[in-house]
Amino acid sequence: MPGNSFGHSFRITTFGESHGPAVGVVVDGCPPGIPLAEEDIQRELDRRRPGQSLIASARQETDAAEILSGVFEGVTTGTPIAVLVRNEDARSRDYAAIKDLFRPGHADYTYLAKYGVRDYRGGGRASARETIGRVAAGAIAKKLLGYEGVSVLGYTCQVGDVKMPTMERMTLEQVEASPVRCPDPETAAAMENLIKQVRSERDSIGSAVEIVARGVPAGLGEPVFDKLKADLAKALVSVPAVVGFEYGSGFAAVPSRGTQHNDPIIRRQTGSGGAPVIGTRTNNAGGMLGGISTGEPIVVRVALKPTASIPQPMETVDTQGNPQTIVTKGRHDPCLAPRFVPIGEAMVALVLADHLLRQRAIRGTE
User: Fold this and answer.
1) What residue spans of the chain are helical by DSSP H?
2) In the chain, what percentage of residues exceed pLDDT 70?
């Protein structure tokens, strides 16, 4: 299979290239009757688009969403929802000089090895501009999850060696208050200064983003290959530039002992019909056990590599294998985390929406 689609009950297929006429997505499986307008999608796309600040790419795109199908009189119809975003500010001339060169850290060589041809303009399908379709679909998934009381919030937790302190709760307003999307003001300022310094040196810097989903009911996820943690990992690692994934305590569990890491199970309250609501006192498991949600917050983190496109001479070869030196021009983010946040949220929302509908198929509308 070509691998342009993701999900089962809530399934998306993205299309388009960075320097083509448009990019977009087709969402299949969204239930009917959900209020949906272009403004709902635009709100998320505006968080992802370039040109938002001095620490982001200067490419100017309105990223205006057009709903082509699947919505009638303001609500979803249950049929495929197609969303289109037209490209406006592509500068293909920036890439003409390197069309026969392989950029280090990019998918130029691997795409040519796979297909025998490649779109050298901005990376084509490998460009992060493909994620517009994911974010548009994620906006629809968030609408669905909202009716179930599920919220998804991401934030930059690390840039270089600058780490955010632990915070119990944060709001979207706190995250969006800073161009780096870090909810802690002091850390956000340090991160912004580091990014500006790196950019002045014509370089880039790695980063990390944490995403938390609250209100997720217990029981989501399949027990073997489609574990919730496995689908979250695939969803997030499929995004360009992601080089690492962890959930819950993650790699911090390595030096731990079982007596420290196991989350004590407690009765939180009494639910409807007198049934107990079970929870855990701590959340080292990141809200998942056996690949199935526990009802505690889902907590995942991803590591993002330094932006590969940097205006520095680098060693490479051309398509004939001859040694060359390359300088990548164009407009690029010196740090990827700020614009990754809405993309990561979208991928988590898509997985949760898919598994929510799959669980309904198993247990009905209980």
Assistant:
1) 38-48, 108-115, 131-146, 172-176, 185-200, 228-237, 258-261, 337-363
2) 93
pLDDT of residue 1: 56
Nearest of 215, 245, 87 to residue 149 by alpha carbon: 215
Which pLDDT value is given to residue 330? 65
- Under 8 Å between Cβ of 193 and 185: no
Determine the residue type at 85. V
Cα separation, 305 vs 107, whole angstroms: 14
Which stretch of DSSP H or E encloses residue 81? strand 81-86
Give 71-117 as a 3 state SS string.
EECCEECCCCEEEEEECCCCCHHHHHHHCCECCCCCCHHHHHHHHCC
Distance in angstroms (rounded) separating the CA atoms of residues 139 and 47: 11
- Cβ-contact 16, 127 below 8 angstroms: no
Q: What is the Cα–Cα distance from 138 to 135, expressed in whole angstroms?
A: 5
**pLDDT of res. 123:** 78
| Letter string b/e over residues 221-233, b meaning 16 or more CB atoms within 10 A of that residue's CB | bbeeeebbbbbbb
Q: Provide φ and ψ at 284, rounded to 5°.
A: -65, -25
Residue 276 has what pLDDT? 83
Q: Tell me, rounded to whole angstroms, the distance of Cα 70 from its chain centroid.
A: 24
Q: Where are the domains of the chain?
A: 5-248+285-363
Instruction: State which residues of the chain have pLDDT below 70.
Output: 1, 51-54, 56-60, 89-94, 271-272, 330-331, 365-366
Task: Answer whether 120's CB lies under 8 Å from 99's CB.
Answer: yes
- Chain centroid to CA 50: how far? 15
DSSP assignments along 322-357, one per residue:
-EEEE---S---S-SHHHHHHHHHHHHHHHHHHHHH
Contacts of 193 (CB under 8 A, 6+ apart): none
On whether the 5-248+285-363 domain is CATH 3.90.220.20, my answer is: no
- Could you read off the pLDDT of 93-112 as tens digits, one per residue? 667 778 899 999 999 999 99
Model confidence, pTM: 0.94
- Which pLDDT tens digit goes with each residue over 192-239? 999 999 999 999 999 999 999 999 999 999 999 999 999 999 999 999
Q: What b/e sequence results for 97-109 when a residue is b if at least 16 CB atoms lie within 10 Å of its CB, and e otherwise?
A: ebeebbbebbbbb
Q: How far apart are CA 163 and CA 337, in angstroms?
A: 13
